[in-house]
Design brief:
The structure is a single chain. The chain is of the alpha+beta class and 429 residues long. Helices cover 31% and strands 20% of the residues. It has 11 helices and 17 strands. The strands form 3 sheets. Strands 8, 9, 10, 11, 12, 13, 14, 15, 16 and 17 form a 10-stranded mixed beta sheet that branches. The protein has a 4-stranded mixed beta sheet with strand order 2-1-6-5. A 3-stranded antiparallel beta sheet has the order 3-4-7, with no helix packed on it. Helix 5 crosses helix 8 and helix 8 packs antiparallel against helix 10. The longest helix is centred in the middle third of the chain and has 21 residues. It is globular. The chain starts with a strand and ends with a helix.
Length: 429
């Protein structure tokens, strides 16, 4: 096959949508999609969501990309590229998560700082039994931090690693997580746009390679009621004009050595905690994971090297100094999620929010924090709607579209038990 182009974007539901295009499109180019895709739900229902123009004739939107962003893909004879979405009037499409991330990065760059991002993804593996039902992947020797055939008898993660290496993804780690059959995938730090482009494509690649082994690899936040959840931890720092990490104070890190920059970022994330949930944990299933004593980012708090707080301050100093926000899961659009974290952090710095005392409780039996996120998706949308400052920073139309679509999701999933709720999402997330 002569190289074709797979031109894609990540939508409001965190789904990768795109087209296969002929070789003539391999270069700086464009293609059109129906704008009302932003009114399509998981069940294919068409809804008049803000910005979708569903009731205005379902017009086109344009996906544009640069030749420099085209890369080899994991499919033979296929290149792949992620583009930016525009309205047919030539203005950036307001619902585009990638555009929201670019705006967040630009705001920090105006302050002389370049955001650097590292993302950790967690996922569960399923396979079909003889009756065609989805069951947990049979990994009888699986253990936390497990490697080798006992953890992954089919070796699908070896195939993911091989493809990632061949295609230039900068893998930091693949390992088994706490709950079998659960795996963690981490890419190394990079500038924000590159890091998120990579994690979006890596996630799609991993799912498609796993499917070739008969494995449904799901990044759903809580596919098993009796097991732990899967998160999408967002680690970030900033480079200054000289290329140095701007977060540490006197080359040191940890809660006892916070720079003014770090204090402002943490204060912003704590202040906008409840509003952030609607963008970082945007499905009904997300609130099965976001619970107290679950290492999930439930509490409105921060701390040092402490996995039971929402914003964790790395104890590693110098170039490795970073903040880790632990609330998000991979049902969120990664572009929107990182944009929201960066915007909330910047609001803390520019608005001079007070930094509360750090968490001293263990997070299992004792917690200083008294406020958590909403208990369900509907209440999370209320909190997001109420946080007008965060909404304005991320983008009004993007957030309004999110609120509309997720309120519809509340109704669609209201009567589903845990298994039915899992199956509503599992082939998409």
């Amino acid at each position: 096959m002569t190289d074709r182009l797979r031109a894609v974007f990540c939508d409001h539901l965190s789904l990768i949508r795109g087209k296969y295009l002929p070789p003539s499109k391999i270069g700086t180019s464009n293609t059109n999609f129906c704008r009302s895709t932003y009114g399509v739900h998981f069940d294919k229902d068409l809804l008049p969501s803000p910005g979708s123009m569903m009731m205005e004739g379902l017009p086109d939107m344009e996906l544009r990309w640069n030749a420099n962003d085209i890369r080899d893909s994991w499919q033979d004879g296929t290149k792949v590229v992620i583009g930016d979405l525009y309205g047919m009037d030539g203005t950036p499409l307001p619902m585009c998560g990638r555009g929201a991330l670019k705006r967040a990065v630009a705001a920090w760059v105006e302050d002389g700082l370049t955001p650097m991002i590292g993302i950790e993804l967690e996922a569960f593996a399923f396979q079909k039994d003889e009756s065609g039902n989805l069951v947990p992947y049979d990994a009888p020797g699986a253990i936390v931090y497990g490697t080798g055939p006992g953890t992954d008898p089919l070796g699908f993660n070896d195939a993911i690693w091989e493809a990632a290496e061949k295609l230039g993804f900068r893998l930091d780690m693949i390992t088994a997580e706490y709950d079998a059959p659960q795996f963690e995938y981490t890419l190394t730090f990079d500038n924000a746009l590159k890091a998120v482009d990579d994690i979006v494509l890596f996630r799609q690649m991993a799912r498609e390679i796993a499917l070739g082994f008969g494995i449904v690899l799901t990044f759903l936040p809580k596919p098993f009621a009796e097991a732990g959840g899967s998160g999408m931890h967002i680690n970030f720092s900033f480079q200054d004009a000289d290329g140095n990490n701007a977060l540490p104070k006197d080359g040191k890190s940890g809660p006892d050595h916070l720079s003014d920059l770090a204090k402002g970022c943490i204060a912003g994330l704590v202040h906008h905690h409840k509003g952030l949930a609607g963008l970082l944990a945007p499905t009904a299933n997300s609130y099965k994971r976001l619970q107290p004593a679950s290492l999930s980012g439930y509490w409105q708090n921060w701390g040092g090297d402490h996995r039971n707080v929402t914003t964790r301050v790395s104890e590693e100093g110098g170039t490795k100094t970073r903040l880790e926000h632990r609330m998000a899961d991979a049902s969120a659009n990664p572009y929107t999620a990182v944009a929201a974290v960066l915007q909330a952090a910047r609001l803390g710095l520019t608005n001079g929010y007070d930094l509360p005392a750090r968490e001293t409780g263990d997070g299992f039996e004792v917690t200083d924090a008294t406020t958590g996120v909403a208990t369900d998706l509907n209440a999370a949308m209320d909190d997001l709607e109420a946080d007008t400052v965060l909404r304005a920073a991320v983008g009004e139309t993007l957030v309004d579209n999110q609120i509309f679509m997720r309120r519809a999701e509340v109704e669609k999933t209201a009567d589903l038990d845990d298994v039915a709720l899992r199956d509503f999402y599992i082939h998409y997330i």
